[in-house]
Amino acid sequence: MKAYPLQFEPILKDRIWGGTKLKSYLNKPIRSDVTGESWEISTVDNDVSIVANGILKGQSLNDLITKFPAEILGTKVLAQFGKQFPLLFKYLDAREDLSIQLHPNDDLAKKRHNSFGKTEMWYVMQADKEARLIVGFKEKSSPEEFLQHLKAKTLLDILDAKKVQQGDVFFLETGTVHAIGAGIVIAEIQQTSDITYRVYDFERTDAQGNQRELHLELALEAINYNKVEAQRLYTKNENVANEMVSCQYFTTNLIPLNGNVSMVKNGDSFTVYMCVEGVFEISWNGESHHYQKGDTLLIPASLTDFQLSGNASLLEIYIS
Question: Any idea which UniProt keywords this protein has (predicted)?
Answer without folding.
Answer: Isomerase, Metal-binding, Zinc
